[in-house]
Amino acid sequence: MFQNAKINEKIAFSLLRMAMGLVVLFVLVILYYIISNGYSVISLEFLTSMPAKRMTAGGIYPALVGTIYLIIGSMAFALPMGILAAVYLNEYAKPGKVTWLIEMAISNLAGTPSVVFGLFGLAMFVKYLGFGPSVLAASLTLALLILPVIIRASQEALITVPREYREASLALGVTKWQTIRRVVLPAAIPGMVTGAILSVGRVAGETAPILLTGAAYFLPRLPESAFSQFMALPYHLFVLATAGTNIAQTRPIQYGTALVLLIIVLGVNLFAIAIRNHYRKKMHR
Amino acid sequence: MSDEFTNGTEIEVRGLNLWYGTNHALHDISIDIPKNSVTAFIGPSGCGKSTFLRCLNRMNDLIPGCRIEGKVNISSQDIYNKDVDVVDLRKKVGMVFQKPNPFPMSIHDNVAYGPRIHGAAKKEIGGIVEYALRSGALWDEVSGRLSTSALDLSGGQQQRLCIARTLAVKPEVILFDEPCSSLDPISTSKIEDLILELKKQYTIVIVTHNMQQAARISDHTAFFLLGDLIEFGRTEQIFESPQKKETEDYITGRFG
Q1: Where in chain B are the domains?
Q2: Quick one: A162 and A132 in the same domain?
Q3: Is the domain of A188 the same as that of A253?
Q4: Predicted ipTM?
Q5: A37 lies in which domain range?
Protein backbone atom coordinates (compact mmCIF):
# COMPACT_ATOMS: atom_id res chain seq x y z
CA MET A 1 0.00 0.00 0.00
CA PHE A 2 2.56 2.49 1.17
CA GLN A 3 4.87 1.55 -1.64
CA ASN A 4 2.03 2.16 -4.09
CA ALA A 5 1.36 5.64 -2.75
CA LYS A 6 4.99 6.51 -3.23
CA ILE A 7 5.00 5.27 -6.81
CA ASN A 8 1.80 7.18 -7.52
CA GLU A 9 3.32 10.31 -6.13
CA LYS A 10 6.35 9.86 -8.35
CA ILE A 11 4.17 9.38 -11.42
CA ALA A 12 2.02 12.40 -10.59
CA PHE A 13 5.01 14.62 -10.00
CA SER A 14 6.74 13.60 -13.18
CA LEU A 15 3.55 14.30 -15.14
CA LEU A 16 3.28 17.73 -13.58
CA ARG A 17 6.93 18.39 -14.25
CA MET A 18 6.55 17.28 -17.83
CA ALA A 19 3.53 19.54 -18.43
CA MET A 20 5.42 22.48 -16.99
CA GLY A 21 8.49 21.67 -19.04
CA LEU A 22 6.43 21.45 -22.20
CA VAL A 23 4.92 24.89 -21.64
CA VAL A 24 8.33 26.44 -21.03
CA LEU A 25 9.70 24.62 -24.06
CA PHE A 26 7.01 26.04 -26.36
CA VAL A 27 7.57 29.56 -25.10
CA LEU A 28 11.30 29.22 -25.63
CA VAL A 29 10.88 27.78 -29.11
CA ILE A 30 8.55 30.60 -30.14
CA LEU A 31 10.87 33.22 -28.67
CA TYR A 32 13.92 31.67 -30.28
CA TYR A 33 12.20 31.38 -33.66
CA ILE A 34 11.07 34.99 -33.70
CA ILE A 35 14.24 36.45 -32.24
CA SER A 36 16.64 34.50 -34.43
CA ASN A 37 14.70 35.37 -37.58
CA GLY A 38 13.82 38.92 -36.67
CA TYR A 39 16.72 40.48 -34.82
CA SER A 40 18.79 41.12 -37.95
CA VAL A 41 16.32 43.69 -39.32
CA ILE A 42 15.81 45.50 -36.03
CA SER A 43 17.51 48.85 -36.02
CA LEU A 44 16.62 52.39 -35.16
CA GLU A 45 15.97 52.94 -38.81
CA PHE A 46 13.60 49.99 -39.00
CA LEU A 47 11.59 51.47 -36.15
CA THR A 48 11.57 55.03 -37.42
CA SER A 49 11.17 54.82 -41.18
CA MET A 50 8.17 54.34 -43.41
CA PRO A 51 7.62 51.12 -45.30
CA ALA A 52 9.13 51.42 -48.79
CA LYS A 53 8.94 49.66 -52.16
CA ARG A 54 5.42 48.30 -51.67
CA MET A 55 6.31 47.27 -48.14
CA THR A 56 9.16 44.98 -49.19
CA ALA A 57 11.68 47.34 -47.67
CA GLY A 58 11.86 50.19 -45.18
CA GLY A 59 10.53 50.21 -41.63
CA ILE A 60 7.42 49.89 -39.54
CA TYR A 61 7.22 53.38 -38.08
CA PRO A 62 3.53 54.08 -38.79
CA ALA A 63 2.43 50.65 -37.55
CA LEU A 64 4.46 51.03 -34.37
CA VAL A 65 3.04 54.47 -33.66
CA GLY A 66 -0.48 53.24 -34.48
CA THR A 67 -0.24 50.39 -31.98
CA ILE A 68 1.05 52.73 -29.28
CA TYR A 69 -1.86 55.09 -29.97
CA LEU A 70 -4.27 52.17 -29.63
CA ILE A 71 -2.77 51.10 -26.31
CA ILE A 72 -2.94 54.62 -24.90
CA GLY A 73 -6.38 55.32 -26.37
CA SER A 74 -8.07 52.14 -25.24
CA MET A 75 -6.48 52.29 -21.77
CA ALA A 76 -7.61 55.89 -21.36
CA PHE A 77 -11.20 54.71 -21.76
CA ALA A 78 -11.16 51.22 -20.30
CA LEU A 79 -9.04 51.71 -17.19
CA PRO A 80 -11.09 54.42 -15.45
CA MET A 81 -14.38 52.96 -16.66
CA GLY A 82 -13.44 49.45 -15.56
CA ILE A 83 -12.20 50.53 -12.14
CA LEU A 84 -15.25 52.70 -11.50
CA ALA A 85 -17.59 49.92 -12.62
CA ALA A 86 -15.82 47.46 -10.31
CA VAL A 87 -16.05 49.90 -7.39
CA TYR A 88 -19.74 50.36 -8.04
CA LEU A 89 -20.43 46.64 -8.33
CA ASN A 90 -18.39 45.65 -5.28
CA GLU A 91 -18.94 48.54 -2.93
CA TYR A 92 -22.30 50.06 -3.77
CA ALA A 93 -24.56 47.77 -5.81
CA LYS A 94 -27.00 45.84 -3.64
CA PRO A 95 -27.10 42.16 -4.53
CA GLY A 96 -30.26 41.56 -6.54
CA LYS A 97 -31.64 40.92 -9.99
CA VAL A 98 -30.10 43.99 -11.63
CA THR A 99 -26.65 43.38 -10.18
CA TRP A 100 -26.88 39.73 -11.20
CA LEU A 101 -27.81 40.80 -14.72
CA ILE A 102 -24.85 43.18 -14.90
CA GLU A 103 -22.47 40.49 -13.65
CA MET A 104 -23.83 38.06 -16.23
CA ALA A 105 -23.43 40.63 -18.98
CA ILE A 106 -19.81 41.18 -18.01
CA SER A 107 -19.08 37.45 -18.02
CA ASN A 108 -20.67 37.09 -21.45
CA LEU A 109 -18.80 40.12 -22.75
CA ALA A 110 -15.54 38.49 -21.66
CA GLY A 111 -16.36 35.44 -23.74
CA THR A 112 -17.49 37.24 -26.88
CA PRO A 113 -15.25 36.68 -29.95
CA SER A 114 -13.22 39.75 -30.79
CA VAL A 115 -14.54 39.92 -34.35
CA VAL A 116 -18.00 40.54 -32.89
CA PHE A 117 -16.57 43.51 -31.03
CA GLY A 118 -15.16 44.63 -34.35
CA LEU A 119 -18.57 44.47 -36.00
CA PHE A 120 -20.13 46.33 -33.11
CA GLY A 121 -17.43 49.00 -33.32
CA LEU A 122 -18.03 49.31 -37.02
CA ALA A 123 -21.78 49.77 -36.55
CA MET A 124 -21.60 51.94 -33.43
CA PHE A 125 -18.48 54.09 -33.58
CA VAL A 126 -17.59 54.13 -37.27
CA LYS A 127 -21.10 54.43 -38.72
CA TYR A 128 -23.67 55.50 -36.12
CA LEU A 129 -21.54 57.97 -34.18
CA GLY A 130 -19.80 58.95 -37.40
CA PHE A 131 -16.19 58.69 -36.20
CA GLY A 132 -15.33 56.93 -39.47
CA PRO A 133 -12.56 54.32 -39.62
CA SER A 134 -10.24 55.95 -37.12
CA VAL A 135 -7.92 55.69 -34.13
CA LEU A 136 -10.81 56.80 -31.93
CA ALA A 137 -13.26 54.16 -33.20
CA ALA A 138 -10.67 51.40 -32.91
CA SER A 139 -9.56 52.52 -29.43
CA LEU A 140 -13.13 52.54 -28.18
CA THR A 141 -13.76 49.11 -29.69
CA LEU A 142 -10.64 47.71 -28.04
CA ALA A 143 -11.60 49.43 -24.80
CA LEU A 144 -14.91 47.54 -24.82
CA LEU A 145 -13.06 44.34 -25.59
CA ILE A 146 -10.81 44.61 -22.53
CA LEU A 147 -13.37 46.20 -20.24
CA PRO A 148 -14.59 42.88 -18.78
CA VAL A 149 -11.02 41.79 -18.05
CA ILE A 150 -10.30 45.04 -16.25
CA ILE A 151 -13.57 44.97 -14.33
CA ARG A 152 -13.00 41.39 -13.19
CA ALA A 153 -9.38 42.02 -12.18
CA SER A 154 -10.43 45.18 -10.32
CA GLN A 155 -13.23 43.34 -8.54
CA GLU A 156 -10.82 40.60 -7.48
CA ALA A 157 -8.45 43.26 -6.21
CA LEU A 158 -11.21 44.99 -4.24
CA ILE A 159 -12.34 41.72 -2.66
CA THR A 160 -8.85 41.08 -1.33
CA VAL A 161 -8.80 44.38 0.58
CA PRO A 162 -9.38 43.25 4.17
CA ARG A 163 -12.72 44.20 5.69
CA GLU A 164 -10.77 45.40 8.73
CA TYR A 165 -9.41 48.38 6.76
CA ARG A 166 -12.89 49.49 5.79
CA GLU A 167 -14.22 49.06 9.33
CA ALA A 168 -11.28 50.91 10.83
CA SER A 169 -11.83 53.82 8.49
CA LEU A 170 -15.61 53.96 8.89
CA ALA A 171 -15.26 53.75 12.67
CA LEU A 172 -13.18 56.94 12.57
CA GLY A 173 -16.16 58.84 11.19
CA VAL A 174 -14.98 58.70 7.61
CA THR A 175 -17.53 58.47 4.83
CA LYS A 176 -17.81 55.47 2.58
CA TRP A 177 -16.48 57.27 -0.48
CA GLN A 178 -13.53 58.71 1.44
CA THR A 179 -12.83 55.23 2.76
CA ILE A 180 -12.84 53.83 -0.75
CA ARG A 181 -10.63 56.59 -2.08
CA ARG A 182 -8.10 56.77 0.75
CA VAL A 183 -7.88 53.17 1.94
CA VAL A 184 -9.58 50.67 -0.35
CA LEU A 185 -8.40 51.88 -3.75
CA PRO A 186 -4.73 52.34 -2.76
CA ALA A 187 -4.73 48.83 -1.33
CA ALA A 188 -6.40 47.44 -4.46
CA ILE A 189 -4.29 49.22 -7.08
CA PRO A 190 -1.55 46.57 -7.33
CA GLY A 191 -4.18 44.00 -8.27
CA MET A 192 -5.88 46.36 -10.67
CA VAL A 193 -2.58 47.01 -12.41
CA THR A 194 -2.23 43.27 -12.93
CA GLY A 195 -5.54 43.34 -14.78
CA ALA A 196 -4.27 46.14 -16.97
CA ILE A 197 -1.13 44.13 -17.74
CA LEU A 198 -3.19 41.33 -19.19
CA SER A 199 -5.22 43.65 -21.34
CA VAL A 200 -2.35 45.66 -22.84
CA GLY A 201 -1.12 42.51 -24.50
CA ARG A 202 -4.55 41.97 -26.00
CA VAL A 203 -4.85 45.54 -27.23
CA ALA A 204 -1.44 45.34 -28.89
CA GLY A 205 -2.17 41.98 -30.47
CA GLU A 206 -5.83 42.05 -31.53
CA THR A 207 -6.37 42.21 -35.26
CA ALA A 208 -10.02 41.56 -36.05
CA PRO A 209 -11.54 44.50 -34.14
CA ILE A 210 -9.18 47.09 -35.59
CA LEU A 211 -9.43 45.65 -39.07
CA LEU A 212 -13.11 46.60 -39.05
CA THR A 213 -12.75 49.94 -37.31
CA GLY A 214 -9.85 51.79 -38.87
CA ALA A 215 -6.63 49.86 -39.46
CA ALA A 216 -5.26 50.62 -42.89
CA TYR A 217 -3.60 48.19 -45.29
CA PHE A 218 -0.95 50.78 -45.99
CA LEU A 219 -0.58 54.44 -45.09
CA PRO A 220 2.43 56.47 -46.05
CA ARG A 221 1.96 58.77 -43.06
CA LEU A 222 1.12 58.84 -39.37
CA PRO A 223 -2.48 59.43 -38.27
CA GLU A 224 -3.02 63.20 -38.11
CA SER A 225 -5.79 63.10 -35.53
CA ALA A 226 -8.03 60.78 -33.55
CA PHE A 227 -10.26 60.64 -36.62
CA SER A 228 -7.58 59.40 -39.00
CA GLN A 229 -6.99 55.87 -40.15
CA PHE A 230 -3.85 54.22 -38.92
CA MET A 231 -1.54 51.27 -39.34
CA ALA A 232 -1.00 48.78 -36.52
CA LEU A 233 1.60 46.07 -35.93
CA PRO A 234 -0.59 42.95 -35.87
CA TYR A 235 -2.46 43.87 -39.04
CA HIS A 236 0.76 44.93 -40.73
CA LEU A 237 2.15 41.53 -39.89
CA PHE A 238 -0.91 39.86 -41.35
CA VAL A 239 -0.68 41.92 -44.52
CA LEU A 240 3.01 41.17 -44.99
CA ALA A 241 2.51 37.47 -44.41
CA THR A 242 -0.49 37.01 -46.69
CA ALA A 243 -1.31 39.72 -49.18
CA GLY A 244 2.14 41.21 -49.74
CA THR A 245 3.45 41.26 -53.26
CA ASN A 246 6.40 39.16 -52.33
CA ILE A 247 6.13 37.10 -49.19
CA ALA A 248 9.65 35.76 -49.41
CA GLN A 249 11.11 39.22 -49.71
CA THR A 250 9.18 40.56 -46.73
CA ARG A 251 10.00 37.61 -44.49
CA PRO A 252 12.67 39.37 -42.40
CA ILE A 253 10.34 42.36 -41.97
CA GLN A 254 7.59 40.01 -40.84
CA TYR A 255 9.76 38.54 -38.10
CA GLY A 256 11.07 41.96 -37.21
CA THR A 257 7.50 43.22 -36.84
CA ALA A 258 6.56 40.25 -34.68
CA LEU A 259 9.61 40.81 -32.52
CA VAL A 260 8.76 44.48 -32.02
CA LEU A 261 5.19 43.54 -31.07
CA LEU A 262 6.56 41.08 -28.55
CA ILE A 263 8.96 43.64 -27.11
CA ILE A 264 6.17 46.20 -26.72
CA VAL A 265 3.97 43.77 -24.79
CA LEU A 266 6.91 42.64 -22.69
CA GLY A 267 7.97 46.22 -22.08
CA VAL A 268 4.52 47.30 -20.96
CA ASN A 269 4.29 44.25 -18.71
CA LEU A 270 7.62 45.08 -17.09
CA PHE A 271 6.50 48.66 -16.58
CA ALA A 272 3.27 47.47 -15.00
CA ILE A 273 5.12 45.02 -12.76
CA ALA A 274 7.38 47.87 -11.67
CA ILE A 275 4.33 49.94 -10.73
CA ARG A 276 2.86 47.02 -8.84
CA ASN A 277 6.07 46.39 -6.92
CA HIS A 278 6.35 50.06 -6.11
CA TYR A 279 2.88 50.04 -4.57
CA ARG A 280 3.52 46.76 -2.79
CA LYS A 281 6.64 48.16 -1.25
CA LYS A 282 4.71 51.22 -0.20
CA MET A 283 2.14 49.00 1.46
CA HIS A 284 4.82 46.78 2.98
CA ARG A 285 3.14 43.50 2.32
CA MET B 1 -28.88 51.89 40.29
CA SER B 2 -28.29 55.46 39.24
CA ASP B 3 -27.11 56.62 42.66
CA GLU B 4 -23.99 54.51 42.16
CA PHE B 5 -23.01 56.49 39.10
CA THR B 6 -21.16 59.40 40.49
CA ASN B 7 -20.22 60.72 37.05
CA GLY B 8 -23.62 60.66 35.42
CA THR B 9 -24.77 58.65 32.44
CA GLU B 10 -23.12 58.87 29.04
CA ILE B 11 -24.96 56.14 27.16
CA GLU B 12 -28.58 55.38 27.84
CA VAL B 13 -30.16 52.39 26.10
CA ARG B 14 -33.86 51.62 26.32
CA GLY B 15 -35.66 48.58 24.98
CA LEU B 16 -33.16 47.76 22.24
CA ASN B 17 -34.00 44.82 20.00
CA LEU B 18 -31.91 43.62 17.08
CA TRP B 19 -32.63 41.16 14.32
CA TYR B 20 -30.30 39.64 11.73
CA GLY B 21 -32.95 38.80 9.15
CA THR B 22 -35.36 36.67 11.20
CA ASN B 23 -32.85 35.87 13.93
CA HIS B 24 -33.77 37.89 17.01
CA ALA B 25 -30.25 38.48 18.34
CA LEU B 26 -30.74 41.04 21.10
CA HIS B 27 -33.81 41.14 23.35
CA ASP B 28 -35.04 44.29 24.92
CA ILE B 29 -31.74 45.61 26.26
CA SER B 30 -31.84 48.56 28.63
CA ILE B 31 -28.71 49.86 30.29
CA ASP B 32 -27.14 53.08 31.60
CA ILE B 33 -23.43 53.33 30.92
CA PRO B 34 -21.73 55.89 33.17
CA LYS B 35 -19.42 58.62 32.01
CA ASN B 36 -15.63 58.54 32.45
CA SER B 37 -15.52 54.96 33.61
CA VAL B 38 -14.87 51.52 32.20
CA THR B 39 -17.86 49.31 31.53
CA ALA B 40 -17.19 45.69 30.60
CA PHE B 41 -19.50 43.41 28.63
CA ILE B 42 -18.92 39.77 29.41
CA GLY B 43 -20.62 36.54 28.39
CA PRO B 44 -20.04 33.40 26.37
CA SER B 45 -19.43 33.47 22.60
CA GLY B 46 -22.52 34.36 20.62
CA CYS B 47 -24.25 36.03 23.58
CA GLY B 48 -24.64 39.28 21.67
CA LYS B 49 -22.13 41.42 23.57
CA SER B 50 -20.16 42.41 20.45
CA THR B 51 -23.35 42.91 18.49
CA PHE B 52 -24.61 45.21 21.21
CA LEU B 53 -21.32 47.11 21.28
CA ARG B 54 -21.65 47.69 17.55
CA CYS B 55 -25.10 49.20 18.09
CA LEU B 56 -23.43 52.04 19.99
CA ASN B 57 -21.56 53.43 16.97
CA ARG B 58 -24.01 52.01 14.42
CA MET B 59 -21.44 49.69 12.85
CA ASN B 60 -24.31 47.22 12.47
CA ASP B 61 -25.69 49.52 9.78
CA LEU B 62 -23.12 47.93 7.49
CA ILE B 63 -24.63 44.47 7.84
CA PRO B 64 -27.35 43.76 5.31
CA GLY B 65 -30.57 42.50 6.85
CA CYS B 66 -29.80 43.91 10.29
CA ARG B 67 -32.76 45.67 11.92
CA ILE B 68 -32.74 47.61 15.17
CA GLU B 69 -35.57 48.90 17.35
CA GLY B 70 -35.36 50.85 20.57
CA LYS B 71 -33.55 53.91 21.80
CA VAL B 72 -29.88 54.64 22.24
CA ASN B 73 -29.01 58.04 23.65
CA ILE B 74 -25.40 59.12 23.75
CA SER B 75 -24.82 62.39 25.60
CA SER B 76 -28.59 62.87 25.41
CA GLN B 77 -28.72 62.50 21.64
CA ASP B 78 -30.82 59.74 20.09
CA ILE B 79 -28.29 58.17 17.73
CA TYR B 80 -30.89 56.27 15.72
CA ASN B 81 -32.83 59.44 14.96
CA LYS B 82 -33.23 60.07 11.24
CA ASP B 83 -31.47 63.44 11.53
CA VAL B 84 -28.32 61.94 13.01
CA ASP B 85 -25.33 61.81 10.72
CA VAL B 86 -23.68 58.41 11.23
CA VAL B 87 -20.35 59.85 10.19
CA ASP B 88 -20.50 62.46 12.97
CA LEU B 89 -21.64 59.85 15.45
CA ARG B 90 -18.62 57.66 14.69
CA LYS B 91 -16.31 60.63 15.21
CA LYS B 92 -17.76 60.96 18.68
CA VAL B 93 -17.87 57.23 19.42
CA GLY B 94 -14.58 55.63 18.43
CA MET B 95 -13.93 51.92 18.14
CA VAL B 96 -10.95 49.64 18.60
CA PHE B 97 -11.28 46.21 17.07
CA GLN B 98 -10.43 42.68 18.05
CA LYS B 99 -7.61 42.29 15.56
CA PRO B 100 -5.20 45.22 15.34
CA ASN B 101 -6.04 46.79 11.98
CA PRO B 102 -3.60 49.58 11.15
CA PHE B 103 -3.80 50.81 7.59
CA PRO B 104 -0.96 49.82 5.27
CA MET B 105 0.59 53.26 5.69
CA SER B 106 3.28 54.83 7.85
CA ILE B 107 2.79 55.16 11.60
CA HIS B 108 2.37 58.90 11.18
CA ASP B 109 -0.18 58.60 8.38
CA ASN B 110 -2.24 56.09 10.34
CA VAL B 111 -2.74 58.55 13.16
CA ALA B 112 -3.07 61.55 10.83
CA TYR B 113 -5.66 59.77 8.67
CA GLY B 114 -8.73 60.79 10.68
CA PRO B 115 -7.77 64.40 11.47
CA ARG B 116 -6.70 64.98 7.85
CA ILE B 117 -10.03 63.81 6.50
CA HIS B 118 -11.88 65.81 9.11
CA GLY B 119 -10.09 68.91 7.87
CA ALA B 120 -7.37 69.59 10.41
CA ALA B 121 -4.91 72.21 9.17
CA LYS B 122 -1.57 70.94 7.90
CA LYS B 123 0.42 72.60 10.64
CA GLU B 124 -1.79 71.10 13.35
CA ILE B 125 -1.29 67.51 12.21
CA GLY B 126 2.16 67.03 13.75
CA GLY B 127 0.88 68.12 17.16
CA ILE B 128 -2.22 65.94 16.95
CA VAL B 129 -0.16 62.91 15.97
CA GLU B 130 2.25 63.42 18.86
CA TYR B 131 -0.57 64.01 21.32
CA ALA B 132 -2.45 60.91 20.16
CA LEU B 133 0.65 58.70 20.21
CA ARG B 134 1.56 59.95 23.69
CA SER B 135 -1.98 59.32 24.91
CA GLY B 136 -1.79 55.88 23.29
CA ALA B 137 1.42 55.14 25.25
CA LEU B 138 3.31 54.52 22.04
CA TRP B 139 5.21 57.76 21.46
CA ASP B 140 8.43 56.73 23.23
CA GLU B 141 8.66 53.56 21.18
CA VAL B 142 8.01 55.06 17.75
CA SER B 143 8.90 58.76 17.85
CA GLY B 144 12.11 58.08 15.91
CA ARG B 145 10.47 56.17 13.07
CA LEU B 146 7.10 57.76 12.38
CA SER B 147 7.57 57.40 8.63
CA THR B 148 8.08 53.63 8.71
CA SER B 149 5.24 51.25 7.96
CA ALA B 150 2.76 50.56 10.73
CA LEU B 151 2.69 46.93 9.65
CA ASP B 152 6.27 46.49 10.91
CA LEU B 153 5.14 47.11 14.50
CA SER B 154 4.46 44.23 16.88
CA GLY B 155 0.85 43.18 17.48
CA GLY B 156 0.64 45.02 20.79
CA GLN B 157 2.17 48.17 19.31
CA GLN B 158 -0.25 47.95 16.40
CA GLN B 159 -3.17 47.80 18.79
CA ARG B 160 -1.91 50.84 20.69
CA LEU B 161 -1.46 52.58 17.35
CA CYS B 162 -5.10 51.80 16.58
CA ILE B 163 -6.05 53.32 19.93
CA ALA B 164 -3.95 56.40 19.14
CA ARG B 165 -5.61 56.61 15.73
CA THR B 166 -8.98 56.63 17.45
CA LEU B 167 -7.86 59.25 19.98
CA ALA B 168 -6.64 61.52 17.18
CA VAL B 169 -10.26 62.07 16.13
CA LYS B 170 -11.04 63.27 19.68
CA PRO B 171 -13.96 61.00 20.53
CA GLU B 172 -15.98 61.11 23.73
CA VAL B 173 -16.63 57.40 23.95
CA ILE B 174 -14.29 54.56 22.96
CA LEU B 175 -15.64 51.10 22.29
CA PHE B 176 -13.18 48.22 22.62
CA ASP B 177 -14.19 44.97 20.96
CA GLU B 178 -12.01 42.32 22.64
CA PRO B 179 -8.90 44.44 22.06
CA CYS B 180 -6.48 41.99 23.66
CA SER B 181 -7.71 38.68 22.34
CA SER B 182 -4.85 38.36 19.86
CA LEU B 183 -2.14 39.77 22.13
CA ASP B 184 0.42 38.27 24.50
CA PRO B 185 0.16 38.92 28.28
CA ILE B 186 2.70 41.75 28.34
CA SER B 187 1.00 43.63 25.49
CA THR B 188 -2.33 42.94 27.16
CA SER B 189 -1.23 44.48 30.44
CA LYS B 190 0.06 47.55 28.58
CA ILE B 191 -3.31 48.00 26.92
CA GLU B 192 -5.08 47.51 30.25
CA ASP B 193 -2.93 50.19 31.90
CA LEU B 194 -3.69 52.44 28.97
CA ILE B 195 -7.43 51.89 29.29
CA LEU B 196 -7.27 52.78 32.99
CA GLU B 197 -5.44 55.95 32.04
CA LEU B 198 -7.90 56.81 29.29
CA LYS B 199 -11.01 56.54 31.45
CA LYS B 200 -10.10 59.84 33.09
CA GLN B 201 -10.99 61.56 29.84
CA TYR B 202 -13.18 59.12 27.97
CA THR B 203 -16.13 56.86 28.55
CA ILE B 204 -14.96 53.34 27.84
CA VAL B 205 -16.94 50.26 26.96
CA ILE B 206 -15.02 47.03 26.52
CA VAL B 207 -16.18 43.64 25.35
CA THR B 208 -13.99 40.91 26.74
CA HIS B 209 -13.83 37.15 26.86
CA ASN B 210 -11.45 37.36 29.72
CA MET B 211 -13.22 37.64 33.06
CA GLN B 212 -10.03 38.48 34.92
CA GLN B 213 -9.61 41.38 32.56
CA ALA B 214 -13.11 42.61 33.26
CA ALA B 215 -12.45 42.31 36.99
CA ARG B 216 -9.09 44.11 36.72
CA ILE B 217 -10.06 47.14 34.71
CA SER B 218 -13.81 47.74 34.74
CA ASP B 219 -15.91 49.76 37.13
CA HIS B 220 -19.16 48.20 35.95
CA THR B 221 -19.86 44.87 34.33
CA ALA B 222 -22.76 43.69 32.22
CA PHE B 223 -23.34 39.98 31.74
CA PHE B 224 -25.00 38.88 28.50
CA LEU B 225 -26.44 35.47 27.70
CA LEU B 226 -28.19 34.41 24.50
CA GLY B 227 -29.10 37.95 23.53
CA ASP B 228 -30.34 38.99 26.96
CA LEU B 229 -28.71 41.37 29.38
CA ILE B 230 -28.84 39.18 32.48
CA GLU B 231 -27.24 41.42 35.03
CA PHE B 232 -25.53 44.78 35.24
CA GLY B 233 -23.88 46.39 38.23
CA ARG B 234 -20.67 47.41 39.87
CA THR B 235 -17.90 45.01 38.93
CA GLU B 236 -17.17 43.94 42.55
CA GLN B 237 -20.83 43.21 43.07
CA ILE B 238 -21.13 41.17 39.84
CA PHE B 239 -18.08 39.11 40.67
CA GLU B 240 -18.54 38.78 44.44
CA SER B 241 -22.27 38.61 44.91
CA PRO B 242 -24.07 38.09 41.61
CA GLN B 243 -27.83 38.38 41.96
CA LYS B 244 -28.73 35.99 39.13
CA LYS B 245 -27.97 32.30 39.01
CA GLU B 246 -26.82 32.48 35.38
CA THR B 247 -24.25 35.13 36.24
CA GLU B 248 -22.94 33.08 39.11
CA ASP B 249 -22.72 29.96 36.97
CA TYR B 250 -20.77 31.81 34.30
CA ILE B 251 -18.42 33.55 36.68
CA THR B 252 -17.65 30.41 38.64
CA GLY B 253 -16.88 28.70 35.36
CA ARG B 254 -19.79 26.26 35.29
CA PHE B 255 -20.41 27.02 31.60
CA GLY B 256 -19.19 29.19 28.79
Answers
A1: 2-251
A2: yes
A3: yes
A4: 0.89
A5: 2-41
Q: What is the pTM of this model?
A: 0.81
Cα Rg of chain B (Å, integer): 18
Contact between chains at B94 and A187 (C-beta distance less than 8 A)? no
Q: Kindly give, in sequence order, each residue whose CB lies less than 8 Å from that of residue B88, ignoring residues fewer than 6 positions away.
A: A173
What are the distances in angstroms from CA A216 to CA A72, A86, A228, A250? Answer: 19, 34, 10, 18
Q: Is residue A47 part of a domain?
A: no
Same domain, residue pair A76 and A193: yes
Nearest to B86 by CA among B117, B108, B56: B56
* Contact list, A278 vs chain B (CB under 8 Å): none
Query: Which of chain B's residues have a Cβ under 8 Å away from the Cβ of A282?
Result: 104
What are the two backbone dihedrals, phi and then psi, of residue A9, each rounded to the nearest 5 degrees?
A: -60, -40
Find residues 133-152 of chain A whose CB sits inside 8 Å of chain B. Answer: none
CB nearest A174 (choices: B64, B104, B114): B114
Is there a single domain that holds both residue A99 and residue A35? no
Q: What CATH number did the domain enclosing A74 receive?
A: 1.10.3720.10
Fold classified for B2-251: Rossmann fold (3.40.50)
CB–CB contact A171 B94 (8 Å): yes
A175 and B114 in contact by Cβ < 8 A? no
Is the domain of A142 the same as that of A19? no
* Selected residues 157-176 of chain A with any CB under 8 Å from a CB in chain B: 162, 164-165, 167-175
Helix, strand and coil in chain B, % to nearest 5: 40, 25, 35
- Residue B253: its H or E element: none
pLDDT in tens, chain A (285 residues): 567 888 999 999 999 999 999 999 999 999 999 999 888 888 888 888 888 777 777 888 999 999 999 999 999 999 999 999 999 999 898 888 999 999 999 999 989 999 999 999 999 999 999 999 999 999 999 999 999 999 999 999 999 999 999 999 999 999 999 999 999 998 898 888 877 877 888 888 888 999 999 888 888 788 888 898 899 999 988 888 886 567 777 888 889 999 999 998 888 888 878 877 887 776 654
- Other CB atoms within a 10 A radius of the CB of residue A84 amount to 12
